[in-house]
Amino acid sequence: MSTESSSYKQLHKPASSFETRDSYLEHELSIMKFKRWGINLPFKDYGIEIEDTIPALAATIGKVVMVTAMAAAFATQFGLSPEFVAENVRLELLIAGVLFAVVFAAVLNPNTNLAGTHGPMIPLIPLIAAAGGHPLALGIMVGVFGLLLSASKGGSKLVELSGEGVRGGLLIYLGAVGLIGQVAKLESWSTGIERGYVSFGVIFVTVVVYAYLAKVNKRWLAIPLCSFLAGVVAFLMGTPFEFVTEPGLPPLSPMFWWGENTGWQLGWPELSHFVAVIPFAILAVAMWSPDFLGHRVFQELNYPRKADGVLMNVDDTMTVCSIRQIVGSVLGGSNLASSWGTYMIPAAIAKRPIPGGAILTGVMCVLAGVLGYPMDLAMWEPVLRVALLVGVFLPLLEAGMQMVRDTQSSQTAGVCMFACAFVNPVFGWALTMLLDNMGLIGDKERADRLKFADKFVIPMIAFVICVGALALVGQLPGIPAIL
């Protein structure tokens, strides 16, 4: 029987058949081939391993943190209470866990990453509210534009046209800025509680443990181990902590969330609300490509070459994120969706495919939402900052540095980082991709091999759309918003 026609169940071998755990995990990745928009089942089409618990735990922590930040930003603008934030986070954990982590990523299409939270949109929420935007209208429009991009295969095309220098520069910038930002927030928090020494103790322990895990090739343990130690160190150094969120279920009726006097207290959106959010929705979807690109890169760097069957499909992931956005918004959620980085990055490092950990992520999200108390622990400053540091930003920085291999790619990466710092990562990615494909920077031989559409037309359209969306909402330095 040929390997091509054999199923995962037939090709699977016990871990004891391999000399090392890495060999077993790489063999698992090489024998899986998922059904696209079909029924994929655990232990028939893929396995669930102890390593899957790590990305699941990281994803759950990341989800609680990011959705809390987004819900709180909306609540501030619309004058909503802290109780609204807590209940909306519970709702989002149930939506993300049951409908999309399990149903889509684990069963229907395991080549799609889980639909997470669009962090870069959080600073724009005040602008959205000031422009007369409505959260439900925004969610629906993001979903519609996302479906259009995925249907046209635009996402995968843009990823294909992003050279190694562009990818490396983008990842280095995102990693470095995020790392510095998280350290600064931890220091600010410890100073605010009049225990400035706590941040030093937490970061010192994190650096030592992370360095050791990297040395012994066990970085996939970084999130749970470093987060646990961060919490222990902070507590032992006198940092106060208490559980306050009690067990329960959020309101599950959309009529409650979109009522005039309940939930968001905004009612259902009108036509003017949809018009107001169009530029923000365009910008949100424009940001997807560099985000998705960074996550797929981690799989390519950590998986064996024969693992094509388990790689993330960018267009299908955009489809799922779009559906998740529309469904989640209609149900009352505050989340703006994107590829789930706090899941994909540790999963790739642990050499695990998407579906096994997706099931565990769904279970953990539901438990966290229903029990309530895990939400308090995940949102405690030393735990969440260290989880983001070792689970997202340090790996981003390392992956970017691995991709900058020669003078040409370092030139492109440098220009990308400069452009990102000048405006933001969307502008930096779009501009550098255009310059790189035209042969003005980077590998000129690569540019010469490209067709005219790939060399100029598609990158120029992407650049114009990105810059236009940024200009509309006032995100270009020194230039007032056009709206």
TrEMBL record:
Keyword annotations: Membrane, Transmembrane, Transmembrane helix
Residue runs in coiled coils: none
InterPro entries in alphabetical order: DUF3360
UniProt organism field: Shewanella gelidii
Keyword Transmembrane helix: yes
Keyword Nuclease part of the UniProt annotation: no
Membrane-spanning residues: 54-79, 91-109, 121-148, 168-184, 196-213, 220-241, 271-289, 354-371, 383-401, 413-435, 455-473
Pfam families: DUF3360 (PF11840)
Protein name: Membrane protein
